[in-house]
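Annex B. Sample input.
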Amino acid sequence: MMHLSRLLFLSGWLLVAGLGDTFAQVPAASPTDTGKEARDGGAIVSQEPLTPIPALTDEDRAAAFPDLGAHTAHSRKLYAYVLFDQLEWQSRNESQTVNWDNMGWIGGDVNRLWFRTEGEGGEGRLKEAEAHLLYGRAFSRWWDFVAGIRQDIRPDPAQTWAAVGIQGLAPYFFDLEATAYLGNAGRTQARVEAKYEMLITNRLILQPRGEMNLVGKSDPERGVGSGLSTTDAGLRLRYELRREFAPYVGITWNQKYGGTADFARTAGEPTGGARLTVGIRMWF
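Annex B, continued. Sample output.
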């Protein structure tokens, strides 16, 4: 038994001694190694890339950060836009009329040539018609100054006005037009028009709209009295089959006041009332 114990002890000692010689043959990492080299089984393996990275040059920096130059604020290209905001049939009692209201422009981002036309026809004749031709210049992001002429075609006699005003997008996204007019014999007028787009869905839109006309001097030949002359309010619900084409239905309220209402009564015409409206809105 003692001989067996000695034999096991001697075998264990020889095994430990042999492993110690093996570990002694592996060189330890030098504290001066910088990481650029590693030792693999005693051989030195380089960590340098096979293809050296070239040094950064001024040409490289210029290619990465080119000079973009100044921002171009306004384009010189000409654009055009035409909108028939109202092209409609109106009915009140036994009276039917056809109305239109359209506008458009041609020009650039700052300077544009504007036109507006509107009118009413019924009973086989043109009752009211007028046209504007205006020069417009943007003086802020959402506003234009306009100046030009307005030609009244109906009712007779025809009349020409000098026109000046502003138009644009007011706070809370109200489209606003305010225009003053100067005619012959010192006659003056002013018109304010506002409208708003209420999106019920992405294609179903409700448009409230109002217009007010003020007159400085009576014009009996044309049936217009001084002061607040007329107001026109409407509520139109349209569905955009395409963005450029939308049928609509609605109701409008027209009213004449003061001397204008008196002239209408004398001529046997109504002074106001509600009308059912069916029409098409389109632009291109």
